Structure formats: C-alpha cells, structure tokens
C-alpha cells in the first residue's frame, strides 16, 4: 500500500489528553520503550505516544482522531506475543489496554464470562476458580485476553477445548473510523448473518480493536491423570498420538517432545526420562474411578505403537512435576544457552504429516548446523521450533532454516502458524500459503480501514 | 441496493451449455419447479435456467458469465432448509450441486474428510462408518454438506461436537467474479491471516460458492446411553440442563421438549411419558463400565432439580426408540394436523434465559390462540417453535407470534436464528440484532460481490 502517515504532534497529544486524561497519555521514552517490543526477536520500535484507554468510548474517540489525521494505531495487551504483533512499526499512537482489565460479568449458569481485553489469562482463571469454571485455551504466558483474541492464541489444552476462536461468543469492536460494533450474541449457537466475530479474531488488530468479549468457559475438571511415554522414533510416537486421539478417550493435552528437548528438561527437572521422542498426555474425568481404566487403555495403545518407557499417575504432585517441566521448556532451553538468544517459531500440519515434518526439522537442523529444539501440541499437529543462536551468522542460518520449515509445513497441507499469528515474522509466507485469498484479505482490510492506520506493517507482505 | 438484473437469454443458455454440457442445463418448468422452494413455507420462485455443475472450474466459468451479464446466481444443495435460503428469488441462474457429490478423500489418520458440497449428510456418514469416524453436526434431514456450510447448520449433537462452523478446516470457494480461492488448511490449528473460512460459512451463498470442503470428523463412540427426565415446570427442567452441563459428564445430546410436544410424540410412539416439560439426554463413552456411573450421576442431578419421572437405558433398542420419537417430532406434529401447514422456526438464547423464553412462548401462544409446539437443543439454548395453521389469518397470527419470539430472544442476549439461517424469513430482524454491524456486513458484500448477483434477496433487509 502507498500510504503516508502523519506523526503525533503536540496538538494531537492535547486532544488525546482531553479524551483519556493527562495521566493516561505518555510520550516519555521510558514508557514508549516498555511497549516497543514483545517477547519475540524482532527489532523494537517506539510509538510517538502511548494512550491508556479505560472505556470503549475513549478507544472510539482516539480512533476518530487517528482516522482523520492518518496516524497509525497499534494495540498493546501484555506484550507476550512472539512474532512482533504489537510492535508499533510505523510509530503513531499505541493504545494500551492494561487498564481496561476488569471482569464485567460472570454468567455462571451460562458458562460464560464477559471481560475487558486487558485482563491476563492467568488472572482471569484465578478469579474464575470460585465459580468452578475456567477459560480453557492456555497460551502458557499470562497473555492478555485481547492479545489472545487478536492472535487466535492456543496451547496445551486446545486438543480438547479448542483454540481461542472456538471459545468466543460476542465482542465489542471499535473500527478504524471509530464506529463501535456489537458482534455476535451470548447464544452458543448463532447463524445470523456474516460471522464478523471470527473475521476479527486473529486479525491482529489490523481490522478493529476489541474492547469487550464474552468467552465460553468450561467446568474445572474434578479428576486429572497424566501419562508419559517414550519411543525409539518419531513415527512410533506419532502413531501413538493418532491412536490415543482415535480412542475416544478425549485427551486434554497430547504433547510431543523431541529427544534433545527431553534431555534438557529431564536433566533440569530431575525427571530421569530416556532422551527419546516422547509423548506427554493429560486426561480429565468427572469420576475418579474412570481414570484408572483410561490409563490402562492408554498404556495398551502406547505399547502397541512400540513404547519403550511408560509412566502414568493420578497423583497430583507427580502430575504437576511433569507439567511444570513442560511449561518451563522455553526457560530451561534459554538457561542452557547462556549468552545466546532463543527464537520461538510455530507451524502446524495435519497429524499424519507430523512425522515427515519432524524428520525434516531433524535433517535440516543437522545439515545447517543450527541448534533447534522441537516440541509442541502434537494432538493438533502444532510444533514449536526453538532456535538458539549467538551471533548474526547463526541468526541468519536459523532464519533460513525457519523459512524452510514453514514452507515444508505449507507443502504438507499445513500453515505458517498455528497459534502465534503472522505479525512481522511470518508475513513473507502469506502469498505462498494463501494465494489469491490474500487479495481478498487485502480488499477486506481496505474496506474496513481505508487509510490502513490499524497496526500497519503486519500480516500483509510488502 | 439499487440493482438491475438481466435475465437468462437463449444466447446465455448456449454459453452455459458450452461450459457444463447440454444435458446439464435445463429451462424445463418441471426442473425449475423442483428447485423453486425449500422445506419452508415461503413462496416458490423459479430460476430462468438450472445448471448442474460437476467441477469447481465449471462453477467459476458460470460465475464469470453471470458477473459480466449481471445475472443472479443462487446455489442449490438438497433443498432441506427452512427459511427460503436457496429460493432463486430474483430468477437468473440456479447452480445445483447435486452432481458434485463425491468424497474426494478420507484422511483417516487426521480424522478428516474432503468432500464435494452436494453429498448428503447421512450419505457421507454411511460411507464413513467403515473408518470408525463420523461428521458430527446433525441437522436431522439429509441436508447437503454445502447447504450445511452455507447456513452453518447444527443439531442434536452440537452440544458436544459443535456446529458446522466448528468442524471445517479448509474450503475451495468461487467468488462472484469467478475467482477460485483456497481458504484455510488441513491443520486443525490456524492463525495465519484473516479467517475467511468462517466468513464464508453461514453467508448463505451470498459471498461465494463452496465447491470443496475438508471437514473434521470424530471417532464413532463405542458405548451409548440415554436418559429421559420429566419435570413439573420448565424452570426445574432447565435447572437440570444447567446442572448436567456443569457436571463434566459431557452430554452428547441435551434436548428439551414442552408438555404438548411430549403428549404428541408419546401418543404416537407409545412411549407412555407424562405430558410434562421433559429433558432427553444421550451420553457417549469409550468404556461400557463408565455408562452406569454416568447415568446414576445424571439421575441424582435430575432428582435434585425436582424430576418427577426418570428413565435411563444402555439398551440400544430402547435408546433408539426414544431418539426415533425425537427425530420424528416434526412429522408427528404434521400428522396430528391434517389439512394444516406447519412452519418450523428457531431462535437461540443463553441457557440461563431459556426458562424466560419458554414462558414467553407459552404465554404468547395462549394469548394469541396460536397452535405452537416448542422443543429443541436446550444444551445450546436453541429452541424450535413449530406453528400449525390452516388459513391466512392463522398464518398471520403465527408470523406475528414468531416475530415476538425472535425479538424476545434478541432482547435476552440471544439471536434470531441458531441454526436455520436468515434466508427470506428472518431478514426483517437483522437491523434489530446487529445494528451498525449490518452496515459492515453490507460493505463486505459490496466488496466481494459488487453487482450483488449472489443469492440476492437473502440476509439483507430491504
């Protein structure tokens, strides 16, 4: 797009202060720097001005100014994303949702909650405990709900409960020109007109800003069990993943970890696991007596696929220890590489293509001499590749390898990203993945944001 | 929209014949009449010409002609919809997908199937039996998959498995101008760009024509049980519905039937059930020994909510008898009203609002002297209201009552339709339900179909 943006003048700062109050606008470098980057590896970029919004109406008024003046606007939630999604790459105004972070209402009988976008995922679930309910898509970090919606985040529990987009019923959205839309309804089933809720989810703040959302919740399971199984090769491990998914046992988590990842976490967390391709599982049940039957069944399935080591437990502290190791895989790997950086990428493929993808990663890693760990949500065909690098050459090699992995995933019927979104880091693959559909995405962008002021530089290549 | 459409001239018929072959174009009144109406009660309208497409490319070429000539194009699947969705209200070309009805590939390890849109829902599941898999969203009728996608159909199993839109991964779509798009991927998790798959699902053939789709499948459950519980009032029945949903028992069906519906089906199917508000449930399990515990738990929950009659079974023929009665509710009611017509409407609300909605239906029915039965998928807050009428005055009263029910559902945080779509019958409510979001739907329609040739007269009021 040939767009010329204006920057934020002192007069505009005054206008912003009139909307949100003087204390909720900052042009101090310290504040701007704190919001100039996410947890990914892309270069930081400052906004001209940071605005903390407290209401939908304030967001709408700020957008009207930006629309009139052609000023870029980028949203900020918690900054836990990985592809540079909330970096204000063209400066302008950054709207932070950090203070728009309340639960508006818990609809306990409906298994729903209406929230503001700035609330943290973990904070929300802490507050929901007393209702016996939880918001299931688990991105690992304490991401903001708004960020999860913007990126269609997902995680370990998605195999059973779905991704973020599967758990949203209605939203309030502010468009580029300041119009306030009420999308969807609190009905679980909706077949009324175009599904704008799902158009906005995953659009990474480029089509509209989400200022309120009603989420589906699930009852907190009464009983948990965990199982971990080691295999001599990836194909055997994935055979077990497919068989467990097909068993009707409905795993709540179904994770794959490659041999070098297992070695790292096993040493760090004293798990005493063989350094082999490994499947880690969790099951939920309404009754304790269902757990034992499930675990026996799982063991049988794993053995049939050639499992060489199996451990299962219904004991809470044993289960927590296993999951602690999995949840802190990234930190463990970072610690194992002092003085180096670690880039976290994700791709996803149909499960049947998982062994071929993992083999490709393994071969490419060795060929290119890149340090790469792979593990992830095998139950959904989602894999994380973590690249450790210490200098520009190593970074370049890691980027090259990542591009090869992404194109391989697309060629296997998969996608450039299962849960991190496109941001800055994946936009070069949009044409390969979507072809002519990218033109349609661009037309819709042009229709809803004719001056391309919302989060410019993201999703669309060029 | 101020649009002037052209009709199909003999020259255009020739062009169509060149694309699909002479035998696949018809202008015979008998053929046109067979495709002039769905199973709803809205007036039939003929197309000018009917085209049976056999490939995506043929659909694309037909669309290029229609786009060039400004001829309306309406898709036809199986004609089982209820709101006039596939009626060619402005004539023009009707593209039938009846011959584009093959399974392209079963991806058994991925629990997926790729199909053409003309295949019937029941026919698909018959063919999938050998793989131990099924496509779960059950619309009741043998709807075409294309029609299910276009209307975001749902049904009895949606409480556990989701609606159609929750079970689609990728689609091939032909736009109004003939462009062929490949949307989504075969990865379960996708966070790559705008979610055009979900924009097209539920758009009722007004944004594009679906010529191929990859669907998520579920393993056929090994063990089934059913339970039926009667209550003295609706509130008690819904209290049980909420409690069962919150129990973690994961019902695969959770249906409500009002007293007069139960009386009708109980007499017809010799079920010997009390004519009281009733909840009908189904549960799936991987192990037979899980069923008994589940049913005891369900009985306890129902008793706590004031259940006055409870029956449960793991016996297949007893279970089938109950579900046969539920599946044939419409036919039973039609038979009970010889010489009358029966109109089937649906609305959906948050579950907590279900008792208020049912009370409203009951009061309005009595006040207006309308014959109305209500029953439906309580687990999702979805209710069907069936109106029986014998003359124009009774039809008018039923339409008035239906409008009151729809507006009540919207006021309760619900929607004008949970699963039948908007079509002709609900478009008058779009403004009330969506407000400014309707303008955005119109902008997107204008962007993707600038001459408004795809299924004109549907979804948008005026």
The strand count of chain A comes to 18
Give the proportion of residues in helices of chain A. 25-40%
Q: Which strand order does the major sheet of chain A show?
A: 15-12-14-13-17-18-16
Instruction: Please name the CATH architecture of the largest domain in chain A.
Output: 2-Layer Sandwich
Rg from Cα of chain A: 22 Å
**Multimeric state:** homodimer
The main pleated sheet of chain A reads as:
7 strands, antiparallel
* Overall form of chain A: globular
CATH topology title of the largest domain in chain A? Uridine Diphospho-n-acetylenolpyruvylglucosamine Reductase, domain 3
The CATH first-level class of the largest domain in chain A comes to Alpha Beta
Helix and strand content put the structural class of chain A at: alpha+beta
Q: Report the average pLDDT across residues of chain A.
A: 95
How many individual domains of chain A? 4
Task: Compute the number of helices of chain A.
Answer: 16
Strand content of chain A: 15-25%
Commentary on this structure:
Two copies of one chain form a homodimer. With 462 residues, chain A is an alpha+beta fold. The first copy, chain A, folds into four domains: 10-98, 2-Layer Sandwich (Uridine Diphospho-n-acetylenolpyruvylglucosamine Reductase, domain 2), CATH 3.30.43; 103-219, 2-Layer Sandwich (Uridine Diphospho-n-acetylenolpyruvylglucosamine Reductase, domain 3); 223-330, Alpha-Beta Plaits, CATH 3.30.70.2190; 337-418, Alpha-Beta Plaits (2-Layer Sandwich), CATH 3.30.70.2740. Helices cover 36% and strands 21% of the residues of chain A. The first copy, chain A, has helices at residues 10-20, 29-34, 56-69, 121-128, 145-151, 158-161, 196-200, 234-246, 259-269, 288-304, 316-327, 329-335, 354-368, 392-411, 430-434, 437-448, and strands spanning 25-26, 49-52, 73-76, 93-96, 103-107, 112-115, 133-134, 168-174, 180-184, 209-216, 218-219, 223-231, 253-257, 278-285, 307-313, 341-348, 371-376, 382-389. In chain A, strands 15-12-14-13-17-18-16 form a seven-stranded antiparallel β-sheet, sandwiched between helices. A five-stranded antiparallel β-sheet of chain A has the order 5-6-10-8-9. In chain A, strands 1-2-4-3 form a four-stranded mixed β-sheet. In chain A, strand 5 (103-107) and strand 6 (112-115) form a beta hairpin. In chain A, helix 1 packs antiparallel against helix 3 and helix 13 packs antiparallel against helix 14 (392-411). Chain A starts with 9 loop residues before the first helix and ends in a 14-residue tail after the last helix. At the A-B interface, strand 9, helix 7, helix 8, helix 10 and helix 15 of A face strand 9, helix 7, helix 8, helix 10 and helix 15 of B.
């Amino acid at each position: 797009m040939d767009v010329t943006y204006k920057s934020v003048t002192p007069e505009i700062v005054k206008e912003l202060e009139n909307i949100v109050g003087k204390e909720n606008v900052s042009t101090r470098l310290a504040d701007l720097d704190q919001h100039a980057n996410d947890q990914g590896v892309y270069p930081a970029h400052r906004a001209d001005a940071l605005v903390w919004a407290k209401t939908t109406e304030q967001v709408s008024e700020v957008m009207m100014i930006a629309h009139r003046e052609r000023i870029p606007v980028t949203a900020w939630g918690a900054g836990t994303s990985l592809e540079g999604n909330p970096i204000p790459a063209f400066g302008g105004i950054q709207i932070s949702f950090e203070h728009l972070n309340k639960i508006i209402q818990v609809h306990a009988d409906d298994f729903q909650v209406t929230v503001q976008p700035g609330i943290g995922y973990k904070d929300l679930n802490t507050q929901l405990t007393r209702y016996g309910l939880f918001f299931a898509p688990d991105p690992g970090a304490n991401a903001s709900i708004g960020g999860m919606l913007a990126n269609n985040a997902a995680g370990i529990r998605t195999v059973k409960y779905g991704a973020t987009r599967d758990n949203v019923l209605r939203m309030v959205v502010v468009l580029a020109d300041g119009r306030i839309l009420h999308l969807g309804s609190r009905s679980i089933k909706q077949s009324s007109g175009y599904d704008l809720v799902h158009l906005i989810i995953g659009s990474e703040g480029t089509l509209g800003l989400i200022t309120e959302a009603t989420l589906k919740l699930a009852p907190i399971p009464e009983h948990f069990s965990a199982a971990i199984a080691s295999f001599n090769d990836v194909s055997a491990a994935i055979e077990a993943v497919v068989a467990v998914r097909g068993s009707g046992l409905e795993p709540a988590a179904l994770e794959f970890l490659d041999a070098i990842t297992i070695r790292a976490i096993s040493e760090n967390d004293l798990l005493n696991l063989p350094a082999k391709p490994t499947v880690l599982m969790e099951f939920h049940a309404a009754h304790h007596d269902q757990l034992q039957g499930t675990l026996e069944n799982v063991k049988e399935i794993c053995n049939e696929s050639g499992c060489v080591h199996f451990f299962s437990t219904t004991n809470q502290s044993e289960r927590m220890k296993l999951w602690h190791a999995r949840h802190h895989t990234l930190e463990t790997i970072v610690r194992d590489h002092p003085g180096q950086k670690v880039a976290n990428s994700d791709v996803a493929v149909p499960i049947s293509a998982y062994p071929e993808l993992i083999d490709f990663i393994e071969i490419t890693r060795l060929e290119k001499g890149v340090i790469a760990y792979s593990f992830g949500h095998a139950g959904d065909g989602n894999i994380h590749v973590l690249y450790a690098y210490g200098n520009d050459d190593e970074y370049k090699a890691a980027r090259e390898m990542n591009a090869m992995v992404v194109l391989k995933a697309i060629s296997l019927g998969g996608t450039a990203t299962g849960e991190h979104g496109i941001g800055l880091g994946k936009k070069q693959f949009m044409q390969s993945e979507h072809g002519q559909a990218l033109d349609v995405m661009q037309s819709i962008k042009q229709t809803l944001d004719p001056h391309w002021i919302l989060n410019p530089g993201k999703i669309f290549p060029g």
